């Protein structure tokens, strides 16, 4: 799994967060997407790597601006995660 952290400029409220989240869900197969207008951040969790240029375009098309994209491998952490190794 891959986790993306995007700095998104222009979100002002919860409705803005919903617009970004819905646009990402419509364009890509993702496990989870959450946005925070207070932190100017969107986090996306996907099974497979996403096309970063397409990701930027999808969000830019909603009227918000992606300032940066950071991707990193994601490993689920939980109470029993260490037992499975």
From TrEMBL:
Domain HMA: 2-67
Segments crossing the lipid bilayer: none
SUPFAM superfamilies hit by this protein: HMA, heavy metal-associated domain
InterPro entries recorded: HMA_dom (IPR006121), HMA_dom_sf (IPR036163)
Protein name as it appears in the record: Heavy-metal-associated domain-containing protein
Natural source organism: Oscillibacter valericigenes
Organism lineage string: Bacteria, Bacillati, Bacillota, Clostridia, Eubacteriales
């Amino acid at each position: 799994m891959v986790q993306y952290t995007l700095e998104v400029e222009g979100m002002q409220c919860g409705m803005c967060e919903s617009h970004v989240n819905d646009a990402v869900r419509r364009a890509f197969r993702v496990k989870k997407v959450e946005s925070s207008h207070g932190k100017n951040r969107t986090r996306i969790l996907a099974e497979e790597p996403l096309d970063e240029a397409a990701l930027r375009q999808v969000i830019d098309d909603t009227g918000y601006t992606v300032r940066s994209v950071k991707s990193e491998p994601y490993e689920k952490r939980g109470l029993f995660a260490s037992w499975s190794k």
